[in-house]
Amino acid sequence: MNSFFKYLGMVAIALLPALSSAALQSGKVQVGNANGTVTLIDAKAQRKPLASGAVFQEGSKVETGADSSVELVFSNGSSVLLTPNTLLEVRTFRQIASAGITSPYRKMEKDPSPSVTELEVSRGKIIGEARKLNALSVFTVKTPAGLVRIRGTVFTVEYRVGADGVGRIVVDCVRGSVETHIFSSDAGPVLVEPGMQLASAIASAALINNVAQSAGAPKAATPSTVTLDKLSQPVRIILCSIPAEDMTAIAAFIAANSTLPPEIVATINAMAQAMPSRAQIFADGIDGAPVKGLGFVITGAQVTGTLAKEDKSNAPSGPTSTTTGGSTTSDGSAPVPGIMASAAAPGTTTLDASIKKITDNVQRMVEAKQLQVTPSGG
């Protein structure tokens, strides 16, 4: 993940010279279509219904109930669509003031100025569209299982915990490209290209904590020991074509619940016609490897020391740095060039700290420039 953090550092450096009288400020999030039960949870944990037309800023959470959805449009032109039973937090959304920021934000054709967007999906699924991001912008989506860096343009991120306590993350890149890092694996970031889907399953923080406590108790039950052994096995990351059924479902949900242009839905439906079905991709069953030519499995060792750590902050419990280690694809070869991004060096800071450092440094530099007095005369 070294390339990712280097990118964040480059953003901080690149932003400073251009900011003589501008600063990163809190952006606005506008509610588009809202259907069913949609709740806004502010920074003080106060809950209130969220309706179409409402506007809020970073630090708030949005929750959808069963058979409910909501569309959030950001003042940089990007948007996310929350499916039923989803909890999303807009942790950070800041941008440089610009005359190009106009309402309604849906009509903006591109990101008008550098922006920093950090979303967190605690559970559920979002369908996003990053509209021509500024070259200096940072857009990430975090889940308890992994981190997704958005490069554009249409994508989905889903995280749900099953009855078995295992958290499953699925990332679709419909258009553009995204980069995903699974926290419990040492495989490093994986580039997900257009038409591809990444999926992985790792134990949730609650399951890890329960199993660790049970295994450490006197006369631990055999099932707990077996489960703990299972949790220590290498993490499988499946990278394959997006199944036609999934692509069709994405188009249908956007058409029914979003204000995105019809052309986007038509394009996704056209792509679905050329995609293989799930049965074709997983001819040996969903638990098997994808058919050769339609995908492969990346195997990365479980990161040492993560099993017994309980996450008390609702943030990922993965390591602050990773290495590609001995990760291999399903055919035993090294990861395919272009698929695996470079790994982080030891001592790499966390994403939250990196984003905070960027925004704080930019703010301090801008304030210093604004306080400087320009000498008069010759």
Give the strand content: 25-35%
Biggest beta sheet summary? 18 strands, mixed
Q: Which whole number gives the mean pLDDT?
A: 79
Helix content: 10-25%
Oligomer: single chain
Give your account of this protein's structure.
The protein contains seven helices and 18 strands. It has 378 residues and is an alpha+beta fold. The chain has one domain (2-371). It has an 18-stranded mixed sheet that branches. It starts with a helix and ends in a 7-residue tail after the last helix. The model is unreliable at 15-21, 305-326, 331-349 and 369-378 (pLDDT under 50).
Task: Walk me through the topology.
Elements: H1 2-15, E1 24-26, E2 29-35, E3 38-41, E4 47-49, E5 55-56, E6 60-64, E7 69-74, E8 79-82, E9 87-96, E10 115-129, E11 138-142, E12 146-161, E13 166-182, E14 190-192, E15 196-203, H2 205-216, H3 222-231, E16 235-241, H4 244-257, H5 262-274, H6 278-281, E17 295-300, E18 328-329, H7 351-371
Parallel strand pairs: 10-11
Antiparallel strand pairs: 1-9, 2-5, 2-7, 3-4, 3-6, 6-9, 7-8, 8-10, 9-10, 10-12, 11-12, 12-13, 13-14, 13-15, 15-16, 16-17, 17-18
Helix pairs in contact: 1-7, 2-3, 4-5
